[in-house]
Each structure stands twice: as structure tokens, then as C-alpha cells.
Amino acid sequence: MTGAPLLSIRDLCVTFPTRQGEFQAVRGVSFDLGRERLGVVGESGSGKSMTGRAILGLVRPPGRVTAARMDLDGQPILNLPERRMRAIRGGRISMVMQDPKFSLNPVMRVGPQIMEAYRLHAGGGRAAARARALEMLAAVQIRDPERVFGLYPHEVSGGMGQRIMIAMMLAPDPEILIADEPTSALDVSVRAEVLNIMDALVRDRGMGLIFISHDLNLVAQFCDRVLIMYAGRVVEELPARDLHAARHPYTRGLLDSLPRLDAPVDRLAVLERQDDWRTEAIDASMVDALPGGLR
Amino acid sequence: MTRTAPTGGQALPPAGAAPVPALPPAPGSGRLAATGRRARALGGILLSLALTLLGLLLVTFIIGRVMPIDPVLKVVGERATPEQYEAARQAMGLDQPLAVQFLTYIGDVLRGDFGRSISTGHPVAEDLRRVFPATLELAAMGTLIGVLAGVPLGVVAAARRGGWVDQIARVAALVGYSMPIFWLGLMGLLVFYGILGWVGGPGRQDILYDGMVPEVTRLLLIDSALAGDWGAFRDAFGHIILPASLLGYFSLAYISRMTRSFMLEQLSAEYITTARVKGLSEGRVVWGHAFRNIAVPLVTVIALSFGSLLEGSVLTEIIFSWPGIGSYITKTLLAGDMNAVLGGTIVVGVCFIGLNVLSDLLYRFLDPRAA
Ligand SMILES: Nc1ncnc2c1ncn2[C@@H]1O[C@H](COP(=O)(O)OP(=O)(O)O)[C@@H](O)[C@H]1O
Ligand SMILES: [Mg+2]
User: Fold this and answer.
1) How far apart are the first and last CA of chain B?
2) Closest residue of A to B285, CA-based?
3) Mean pLDDT of chain B
4) Does A183 touch chain B if contact means CB atoms closer than 8 Å?
5) How many domains does chain B fold into?
6) B288 and B359 share a domain?
7) Residue B73: inside a domain, yes or no?
8) How many Å separate Cα A120 from the centre of its chain?
9) Are B337 and B7 within 8 A, CB to CB?
10) Residue B158: in which H helix or E strand, if any?
11) Which one-letter DSSP state was computed for residue B215?
């Protein structure tokens, strides 16, 4: 492993001007990402998606992104000129979003959408891109890729649509995939399957995965390491296998409010929130002090 | 159900062992079913087309009967004897029951026989063949200008919402909606014809070129180009450009607003974020992804705009002495020449219905989600 982590972020802030003054959607998030599966958990509105979009340079004005550091493979990518950022977007960092029903272009056939992503970064002719698209469709376990290649998004199911998204986003061989609640819009019956496919591809390619979810259980099972976000901050960071030993009261609250089969309770605990969690969150120095093996 | 998960991912819940479904039960599985639905939809459209046309003919027929103008008197004149009057009435079939008269009327119209115009002395159909192309050419030029300027304006206004193009587009549309056309037309003539002399005056062409261009399509620009008569072409262009720009401006106001709101809706869609995540340039995001999604509704807007220029250019035709169907209907209406008025009305009505059907068909066959 090389010295620098794939992605290194310190003190990331995303700010929106509002009538009541500045609104900070992300307030000083710091973490390193190696070739690992990093879970980001938190309730709705805690800034998970904004963090992902900030990494991709997709926060639209008047939103503003600042950070003490945002390095990809040791190279700063914060506030890069748009042209250079476009080469990184899709080419080196990619993203799968929540609902394939909305995230695929409804009037384009599936195949050309995959080809477009590939050709943009790998170049090459139509024939090569077509072959690559079919190969990617096969890689996400779609039988009969030729047929699916010619379908429109409304002609495929949710699970199939999400596999197509994964195929499309991985076609140019990026190093990092941000998966923003990739299964929460899917039928429960196909969630695990889609996750398995994504997981296998990400690991085969030695990629880094940022897995955003509000489902603590899922993240605990699926990821190597977990960031707990609350109100735009990381309140706790720990290896997934140590989640049961989480110390932060918010994480404990999240855990306690989950139903458990082994220890049924009459009523689930209600999630408590305290104002000081907004301010006392872990800082960058604590991230740097983490065991290196987790990078 | 014992298949292992395709990846063997250790950390995953057992639900991962569910078999990969071969293909989802896609809505409307199979192209055949879709073709069947389209055929049925086409049948429905044709049926409603036939009914609408029948309704149009019924309306024009009834208007022809209830107008306080006696068609027989118009033919035989005020001083005819009662015998002459009755003979003419029978010759015109007006002694028959109304239902029979209506069927005869439908038959006549379907054969292209709208009767004779008493103000021009020609068969109405012949007059319409002369005046309709003039209107068609003017409305087409107007729509062309409206589309070429309005669509890009609307797209850019949406892509740079709140920017200076957006502001200009807003003001331009507002002026277009609120400015009286006769005022704009007269000012245009005064400035560009009277003072600057940049354009030809009223009418379709100078007397110099009148009847010099062989008639093929009866669209002067096309006929003169076909004949290679560039002098006549320039002359016709000089005459059409001002009224067409005027109509085009109104068309632009409508088309740019509609384009802008269609685009804003698409640009906030999730697939646009996907396109940006892929690393596409903003131009390709806007034109290659968002615009593709508005192409079909935009066709409808353009067709409607064209239709409204066809029927609504009466004032423009009068201001510019444009020998089109608007002028024709106005003139014949004032002369009580009902055959001509109703014939013209049918042509305009058929155009409007036809454009509606066409845009409906385009929608059904171009949008992959329809059918
Ligand atoms: N354009 C915007 N202007 C102002 N606030 C925004 C904007 N977009 C998102 N936010 C706010 O940022 C916060 C974080 O949002 P998000 O990252 O989407 O949360 P989540 O953790 O659910 O993904 C939310 O409170 C949201 O309301
Ligand atoms: Mg979110």
C-alpha cells in the first residue's frame, strides 16, 4: 500500500446562504479512505449526501465548499478548475444514487448511457464502448446483456436498474465509489443481492467505497469502518465490528432504537439528541490518531 | 434456493442467497404488446379525428343556415321573380330536408367543392388554393423564427437561471405577450420600410415580379428558389421578413417560456446529477440529456404555436396587405360571401385539428415511455 490514503479529507464544510444567515449542512467533517468499505451513517438531513456531493465537486452555487484538505491520492482536488474536475468525476470518483427510477435518463436506452460514461473517460470507438457496456452488464450479473442493452429505463425493475447504474458508474474503472443509499429505494428482496454485486466488484478492483446509509445494521454488516454523522458532523468513528462498543451517546441511541431479535423489549428506545453533540464532535487530530490499518 | 450469493461476500445477510431473477416482469413485456397498444392508440386517434372533422363541418353547415343572409338571394339578385327564386332554390338543393342537405354538404366538401365565391366569382376552392399558401408561408416563417430564437433562448435561460439571458428572455416574453400587434406592425413598417428602407413594403412581392415565378408549391420563397430566380427570391424574402418577424416574435415569447419551464423541470431531475457524476460537460448535460427529454413536449408546443399563427395572423395580414387566408376571410365576410367564409374556416380548422393530431402522434411514437 502506498503512503497516502486514496482520499483524505480534513475539516470539510458545506455552507448555504439562507434568509436566516448561513446554514452549514456539513460542519468540519474529516476522514481518510483507503481501499476499504467505509460506512457513513446518520439520520436524514445529517449531511451524508452533501459530503458525497462535495467530494465530487457537485455542490451547486450558492452552496459553498471549504476544507483544510481534500486530497485524492495525495493530490488536492478542492476547487479544481471545472475541466479538471470533470476528468475526476466519473473517471476516478463515481457515485450511485438512491433510486434508479429517477437516476437513469428516461429517454435513452440503457446501453448508450453506459457507453457514454465509458467513452468519456476511456475514449475509444463505439464498438469498444459497446463491448465494454455488455461486459459490465454481465459483470453485474445481468443475464442476456444484449437484450437489456436495448431497453429503456422504464422497462427494467428497480433491482435491475440499480445494477445498471453500478455497471455504468464502474465502466470507466474509477478508484472510489460513493454509494448514496443505493438500496433504500429497492424491494427488500433484492437489496442484499445488489449489495453483494456491488461489494464484489468494488473489492475485485481494489476500490474504496463510501457507503452512505441510515441503516446502522446494514452498515455494520457490510462495511469495515463506520462514521456516525449528526447535524453535519462526525460524532464517532470506529471499526464496524466494534460498533456494539460504541461510546458516543448518539450512536448508542441509534443502536438502542433498533429492534433486536435476541433481546426483545416492550418499547424501542426513543432517540435522544443533545445540543452539545453539535459542537463537541471528534476533530481531525483524532482521525489522524486512528490505527493505520484502517486507512 | 441454496445458491450462494454470487460474490461470496462474507459479511452479508443470508438474504443474499436469493436467486438472481432472470428478467424483471417489465411493464409491457415484449415489443409485440407495445405495437398492439400503439395500433389501438392510433385507431383511437383516427376515430376522434373523424369525429372532430364531422363536428367542424356540422358547425360550418349550421352557421351557413342560420346566418341572416339568404344564399339564394345572393345568387339571383334582389330583383328576381318568385319563380326564378324558387328555381334557384331547388337548383341549390335548399328545398331538401336538412339532413339530406348536410350529407350533400359533406359530400361536396370531401370532393373539395366549397361552392362559388360571389365576391371573386371563382370557385372558393380555387381562391383558397391561391390564398392559403401565402398564409402557410408566413406562418411557417414566423414559426421558424420563433423556434430558432425561442428554443435556444429558453434553454439558456433555464440552464443559467437568473442570469442575464434569463432576464432578457423574461422581458422579451413579457413585451411579446402585452404588445398590441397592430402597433408593432405599423411601427415596424414605419421604421424598417418607411425610414430605413431595409425591407419590402406591403404585399407578398413587388409588382415587378408578379406572376413571373412559375407556380409549383405556391410558396414564393420555395418556387423562386426552385426556378433559380434569385431576384424574385430576394424580393419575396424582403416582403415576408417583417411580418414573419412580427409573428415570430409572438411565437418566440410563447416558445421560449415553455422551453424554459420544461427545461427547469428536467434540470432538477436526478438523472441530471447522474450525467454530471459521469463527468459530462455542462453543455452535454443540458443538450444531450435534459433537452432530449423535452424534445417531445416541445414538438407539441411548436405545433400549437404554428396553428395559432395560421389562424391568428388576420391582423398581421391586414396591416401588411398580405394576400392570405386571414385577409380573404375578412374581406368575404364583410361582403356576406358565406361560401368563401365557411370554406376558409374549414381549411383553417382542418389545419388546426391536423396539427393537434400530428403532435399527439409524435408524442406517442417518439416518447419511449408512451404507448
Ligand atoms: N440547496 C440547499 N440549500 C440549503 N440547504 C440544503 C440544500 N441542500 C441540502 N440542504 C440541507 O443540508 C442538510 C444535509 O442534507 P443531506 O446531505 O442531503 O442529508 P442526508 O444526510 O439525509 O443525505 C439538510 O438539512 C438539507 O436540508
Ligand atoms: Mg441523503
Assistant:
1) 37
2) A105
3) 85
4) no
5) 2
6) yes
7) yes
8) 22
9) no
10) helix B124-159
11) P
Give strand pairing partners of B25. none
Ligand showing the shortest atom-to-Cα distance for residue A24 = 1
Query: Which residues between 18 and 47 in chain B have a beta carbon less than 8 angstroms from any beta carbon of chain A?
Result: 18, 20-28
Say yes or no: B87 and B152 in one domain: no
A24-39 pLDDT, tens digit per residue, is 999 999 999 999 999 9
CB contact under 8 A, B273 and A58: yes
- ipTM of this complex > 0.90? no
Is B352 a member of any domain?
yes
Distance from CA of A242 to the nearest CA of B (A): 14
Q: What angle do CA B78, B84, B88 make, to 5 degrees?
A: 95
Q: Which residue has the cell 462526525?
A: A234
Give the residue, by CA position, lying nearest to ligand 1 atom 20: A45
From residue B348, alpha-carbon distances to B133, B312, B329 in Å are 12, 10, 10
Give A76's strand partners.
A71
Q: Do B349 and B311 fall into the same domain?
A: yes
Mutate which of B278, B296, B299, B366 to test chain A, going by most A C-beta atoms within 10 A? B278
For A134, left (φ over 0), alpha (ψ -120 to 50), or beta?
A: alpha
B278 part of a folded domain: yes
Residue B323 phi, psi dihedral angles, 5° rounding: -75, 60
- Report the relative pairing of strands A233-239 and A225-230 from DSSP bridges: antiparallel
Residues of chain A contacting B368 with CB distance shorter than 8 Å? 106-107, 152, 154
SS3 A22: strand
CB contact under 8 A, A102 and B24: no
Are the beta carbons of B49 and B357 closer than 8 angstroms? yes
Say yes or no: B325 and B203 in one domain: yes
Q: Residue B78 is part of which domain span?
A: 66-110
Give the rounded distance of the alpha carbon of B165 from its chain centre: 27
**Cβ of A44 less than 6 Å from ligand 1:** yes
Residue with cell string 430566380: B229
Q: What is the CA radius of gyration of chain A?
A: 19
| A37-41 and A225-230 beta bridge pairing | parallel
Lowest average pLDDT, out of A6-20, A88-102, B57-71, B110-124, goes to: B57-71
Q: Which three cell numbers stand for residue B55?
A: 363536428
Which residue has cell 404554428?
B306
* Any B CB within 8 A of A234 CB: no
Closest CA to B121 of B79, B178, B74: B74
pLDDT, one tens digit per residue, over B337-364 is: 888 999 999 999 999 899 888 888 888 7
Q: Do B96 and B141 reside in the same domain of the chain?
A: no
B138, B120, B172: which is closest to B315 by C-alpha?
Answer: B138
pLDDT under 70: residue ranges of chain A: 1-3, 257-272, 274-295
For B345, counting Cβ atoms within 10 Å of its Cβ (0-12 exposed, 13-18 middle, 19+ buried), the class is buried
Quick check: is B115 in a domain?
no
Contact A41, A257 (CB under 8 A): no
The C-alpha atoms of residue B173 and residue B171 are separated, in whole angstroms, by: 5
Query: Which residue ranges form the domains of chain A, and what is each CATH number?
Result: 7-288 (3.40.50.300)
Q: Which of B80, B110, B140 is the last residue of a domain?
A: B110
B295: closest chain A residue by CA: A107
* Residue where the block lists cell 420544461: B262
Which pairing describes strands A93-96 and A225-230: parallel, antiparallel, or unpaired? unpaired
In this structure, of A35-39, A249-253, B5-9, B34-38, the range with the lowest mean pLDDT score is B5-9
